Amino acid sequence: MNSLKISKKNFQALSDLDACLELQKALVPDLATDRIVAQTYFTIARAHKLNDNFDEAAKHFDMARDILKAKLGEELRKE
Question: Under a CB-based contact definition with an 8 Å cutoff, are residues 37 and 24 in contact?
């Protein structure tokens, strides 16, 4: 649903996504390697980008990237 809101530049989407991220922080045992958390950061970044808030977008894109890199490293260590 937030993807639809974001594509329509609905500013409520950022508030909803921030609330989602806070719930994930409280419930997800390993934030550093969770793909769903990475997706949330990515979606927040897209919303900031659409609102021309490029510094915040870059920050959230970086957070998503860092989580995915950590997840990849975790998967490679398992092999």
Answer: yes
Two tokens, residue 71 = 């997840």
The CA-atom distances, in angstroms, between 64 and each of 3, 5, 28, 74, 79 are 16, 20, 15, 15, 23
Tokens coding 47: 């919303």
pTM assigned to the model: 0.83
Q: Token pair for residue 68?
A: 């995915």
**For 66-69, which contacts have Cβ atoms below 8 Å and span 24 or more sequence positions?**
67/31, 67/32, 67/33, 67/34, 67/35, 67/37, 67/38, 67/41, 68/35, 68/38
> What are the pLDDT digits (tens) for 42-60?
999 999 998 899 999 999 9
